[in-house]
Design a protein that fits this description.
This protein is 82% helix and 0% strand. It contains three helices and no strands. The protein is elongated and about 55 Å long.
């Protein structure tokens, strides 16, 4: 019996790419609605608290997107 079913692998890749795209879009929306530029504040100004906040938001959105895709 073949363990790797091609349709399941294709579906997993498609849903992974879709989830990643949604997370990137969510980051840009978060950057638009927040004052200043998140990436500059985190990387150039080394704002650790903001990095932790954005990281927790991304993890939360990832859980929500994964459960929405999974059903």
């Amino acid at each position: 019996e073949n363990v790797f079913h091609i349709p399941h692998i294709i579906a997993a890749v498609v849903y992974s790419v879709l989830g990643f795209i949604l997370l990137v879009i969510a980051f840009f929306v978060l950057d638009l609605i927040s004052p200043g530029h998140l990436w500059n504040d985190i990387v150039k100004e080394k704002n650790t608290a903001l990095g932790i906040l954005v990281g927790s938001i991304i993890i939360s959105l990832g859980i929500i997107i994964a459960s929405a895709i999974h059903g």
